[in-house]
């Protein structure tokens, strides 16, 4: 099998080194069929955005047309009508991926250096062009000398595009990759308004009613609201993960994964791979895989572990989840139990709304960032959502564990977890009481909230680190009902197993918590929740009924 170029987003390098390449060249064909002058593609991190943009650069580039033509030998685009566009346009390709700065001043300085290096390497010939005015050549010279001010930088796309059209006689292709990376950094470091102003002016100058533009493509993670960035840019059409067009051009489809696994000699792992890394739905295209995860899996010779979530930046997610309102908490706890939920989402991201904990905003961010997927559309802005796969589920559980374990020892080292795994009931109950008193300071577990989901999610979070060695099942149909939570070792020689059932004491309940815990315990027996565990040969089963009222908790074993 050919070498996997994991982490390489340079199309030319992949093709010259004859690395394994999953053919996405028909992205070009679909792009040139129409779809407007400027297109925005919001996609999660590491779903092939930069590689696709690199491919567009090498395909259209007029300055190296003959040199780049062999890069596409054997790809589908060779036999498509869009092949006529190969090597016909000047291309401006800018990426903001690495422009994450601690201040606006640092950003301007870093961007000035970046664009000066880029123009020198790509368009220095404009200084000698006979078709340009002296003032235009001075603009290029000022850029190269890194003496441009912020206003010059904001107008750079428009002016360079106009010069390229004059020189080549045809309007350029404009590619902007990861446009929102500096915006995330600006939010983190407290200069968001200045960055939004800059990006609004910069993109408007380059894209708005621009006669010096053949086609423009912008990629990023979020679809930032027009009032933040794209005000007045009526010529930009957005194709998000909810749209059918271009749905299979980012990420890897099921047939492509099947071929990859076959080529790698890992075809027998197809079902396990599907559970771990599949599950995304883009538009009407089902079974989209995360490219980074599936390629890493093959590179590691079939090792099923989280890959993407360990490379992604979760800071924004971690920041907004603690601020989630009660509705959002309920939805997240249902998702953690591997349920599907119906909810409204914001299709545009307004940064000012992110930290209000608003349900639609939080869920929209999670969806477009790749932590949820939309199973189907129910109504306008209303979708059936779910966690796509085991990899993302493990991330949610670990983040919950990190939250509820804040200020304490690692969950796996606490007496609470040791007593549970050693099946010492009395000590577990005592430690659970202590833990709930401290770890639940954030969560609202009053009667008006949904404390049963909080307890359930709390235990899921504590068990997150056991995922490598234990099968953890939440809210699964088993026996004659749905067990809240059970887990058992992947090692069949270990006879232990655990079943937990939660009961909330209602305001009008006359019985005490101990009776309610016994009722939960009885439910485990009467509904035969042991069925799957016994079928796997685990006979030393610890059954736990957990009853609670606010922060009061009682167990029955």
Automatic annotation (TrEMBL):
This is AAA-ATPase-like domain-containing protein. InterPro entries: AAA-ATPase-like_dom (IPR018631), P-loop_NTPase (IPR027417), PDDEXK_9 (IPR012547). PANTHER family: AAA-ATPASE-LIKE DOMAIN-CONTAINING PROTEIN, CONSERVED PROTEIN, WITH A WEAK D-GALACTARATE DEHYDRATASE/ALTRONATE HYDROLASE DOMAIN. It comes from the Bacteria. Residues 6-230 form the AAA-ATPase-like domain.
């Amino acid at each position: 099998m050919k070498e996997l170029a994991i982490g390489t987003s340079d199309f030319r390098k992949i093709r010259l080194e004859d690395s394994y390449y999953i053919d996405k060249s028909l992205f070009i064909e679909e792009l040139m069929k129409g779809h407007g002058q400027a297109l925005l593609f919001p996609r999660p991190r590491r779903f092939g955005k930069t590689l696709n943009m690199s491919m567009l650069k090498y395909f259209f580039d007029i300055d190296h047309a003959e040199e780049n033509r062999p890069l596409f030998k054997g790809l589908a685009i060779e036999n498509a009508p869009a092949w006529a566009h190969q090597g016909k346009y000047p291309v401006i390709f800018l990426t903001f991926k690495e422009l994450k700065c601690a201040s606006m001043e640092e950003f301007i300085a870093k961007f000035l250096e970046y664009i000066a290096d880029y123009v020198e390497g790509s368009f220095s010939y404009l200084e000698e062009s006979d078709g340009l005015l002296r003032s235009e050549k001075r603009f290029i010279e000022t850029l190269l000398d890194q003496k441009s001010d912020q206003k010059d930088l904001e107008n750079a796309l428009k002016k360079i595009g106009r010069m390229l059209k004059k020189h080549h006689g045809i309007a350029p292709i404009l590619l902007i990759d990861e446009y929102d990376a500096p915006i995330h950094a600006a939010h983190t470091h407290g200069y968001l308004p200045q960055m939004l102003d800059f990006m609004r002016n910069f993109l408007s100058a380059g894209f708005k009613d621009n006669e010096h533009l053949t086609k423009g493509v912008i990629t990023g993670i979020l679809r930032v609201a027009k009032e933040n960035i794209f005000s007045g840019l009526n010529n930009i059409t957005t194709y998000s993960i909810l749209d059918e067009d271009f749905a299979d051009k980012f990420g890897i489809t099921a047939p492509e994964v099947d071929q990859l696994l076959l080529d790698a000699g890992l075809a027998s792992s197809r079902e396990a791979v599907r559970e771990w890394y599949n599950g995304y739905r883009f538009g009407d295209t089902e079974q989209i895989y995360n490219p980074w995860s599936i390629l890493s899996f093959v590179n590691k010779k079939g090792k099923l572990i989280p890959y993407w979530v360990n490379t992604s930046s979760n800071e924004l997610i971690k920041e907004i989840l603690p601020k989630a309102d009660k509705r959002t908490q309920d939805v997240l706890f249902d998702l953690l139990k591997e349920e599907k939920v119906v909810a409204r989402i914001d299709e545009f991201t307004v940064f000012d709304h992110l930290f209000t904990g608003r349900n639609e905003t939080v869920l929209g961010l999670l969806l477009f960032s790749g932590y949820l997927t939309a199973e189907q559309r129910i109504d306008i802005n209303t979708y059936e959502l779910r966690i796509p796969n085991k990899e993302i589920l493990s991330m949610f559980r670990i983040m919950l564990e990190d939250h509820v374990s804040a200020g304490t020892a690692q969950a796996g080292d606490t007496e609470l977890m040791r007593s549970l795994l050693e099946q010492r009931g009395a000590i577990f109950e005592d430690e659970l009481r202590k833990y709930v008193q401290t770890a639940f300071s954030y969560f609202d577990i009053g009667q008006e909230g949904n404390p049963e989901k909080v307890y359930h999610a709390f235990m899921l979070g504590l068990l997150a680190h056991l995922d490598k060695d234990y099968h953890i099942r939440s809210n699964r149909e088993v026996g004659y009902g749905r067990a809240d939570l059970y887990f058992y070792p992947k090692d069949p020689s270990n006879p232990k197993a655990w079943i937990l059932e939660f009961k909330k004491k209602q305001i009008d309940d006359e019985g005490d918590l101990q009776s309610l815990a016994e009722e939960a315990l009885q439910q485990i027996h009467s509904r035969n929740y042991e069925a799957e565990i016994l079928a796997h040969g685990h006979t030393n089963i610890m059954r736990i009924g957990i009853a609670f009222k606010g922060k009061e908790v009682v167990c029955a074993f």
